[in-house]
Specification:
Layout (H helix, E strand, L loop, with lengths): L11 H4 L1 H4 L12 H21 L4 H7 L5 H26 L20 H11 L7 H16 L5 H18 L2 H34 L4 H57 L26
Helix pairs in contact: 3-5, 5-9, 5-10, 6-7, 7-8, 7-10, 8-10, 9-10
């Protein structure tokens, strides 16, 4: 198989979406708060510029004329969206190593202490910095353990331990997303409380006003404006939260599938290829690899 050139090698430093935007990219599947926050801020400003220039309609009134709560709702909505969207780019990048072989082309190849360096060399040909990829990090760490201690029995346990750690890191990477998905509906409820408070205060003035219809009309308009703020901010917040929650569900599913595929790849390409070589390390030779393993 033709070797990858330096420019065609997998490179997290070159291909990570955050680093392409000149931000200090977070490794693996974690998304930086700075990069997503800046994109959210710019998107919020562009969104309100477009809304301000749009013709008058109910949607424009909802985001511009319903108090101060729609503004943070829109901002946190964009922030959550970019956290999730950048995550999809990172998942796609971490999937690329699964498409490249890490074992030599020899069908009789078996993995022993003597052949560890061949696999490590193959991984180095695939990626510029293998430890920047979840799959290669797992394999390289396990092979280092195998080479240093010469124990193949613990390889599967080590892979399982690394898989659990990656799952924990994946769960931690959703902390900010979960916080925003919790905060957006709360902001909607705050807008509801503020709107109802304004409506009640206006209604009190209606009760104390004279019975002339011409004098009651302005006060009633204030009551309806407060009710509009109460219900429309809640509707906006719940709509944004529901949309983002569905998006987050699909992203989380994709991330879990990636971690499962990495575990399956390690099991089929490393664990099942392991063989015990009982001879002392100084008597082992790479040329022994061509011989079938002793049952």
């Amino acid at each position: 198989m033709k070797k990858l050139t330096q420019s065609s090698k997998l490179s997290w430093r070159r291909d990570d979406f955050e680093r392409r935007l000149a931000f200090p990219g977070e490794r693996y599947l974690k998304v930086g708060a700075l990069s997503s926050g800046v994109l959210a801020l710019l998107s919020t400003l562009l969104f309100y510029c477009a809304v301000f220039l749009a013709p008058e309609c109910a949607a424009k009134a909802t985001v511009l004329e319903r108090g101060g709560t729609p503004y943070p709702i829109v901002f946190f909505g964009f922030w959550t969206f970019f956290l999730l969207w950048i995550k999809t780019r990172k998942i796609k990048l971490q999937r690329k190593p699964l498409q490249l072989p890490i074992l030599p082309n020899d069908p009789n190849f078996v993995l022993t202490v003597a052949t560890v360096d061949e696999v490590t060399r193959k991984i180095s040909e695939n990626a510029e910095s293998p430890k920047d990829f979840l799959l290669y990090r797992r394999v390289v760490q396990t092979l280092a353990h195998l080479r240093n201690l010469g124990q193949v029995a613990e390889a599967d346990a080590l892979f399982r331990s690394q898989a659990e750690r990656d799952e924990n890191l994946s769960e931690t990477s959703y902390a900010l997303i979960n916080g925003f998905l919790w905060a957006i509906p709360i902001l909607g409820f705050i807008g509801t409380v503020l709107g109802l408070s304004a409506a009640i205060a206006s209604f009190t003035s209606v009760l104390t006003a004279s019975g002339e219809v011409s004098e009651l009309t302005p006060a009633l308009k204030q009551v309806t404006a407060g009710l509009s703020t109460a219900f429309e901010t809640t509707f906006l917040a719940l709509s944004v939260a529901l949309t983002l929650q569905i998006f987050a569900t699909f992203v989380r599913k994709s991330e879990e599938e990636l971690l499962d595929d990495i575990s399956d790849f390690c099991a089929s390409n490393v664990v099942l290829k392991l063989r015990v070589d009982a001879r002392p390390v100084n008597e082992r030779n790479v040329s022994d690899v061509a011989s079938p393993p002793t049952p």
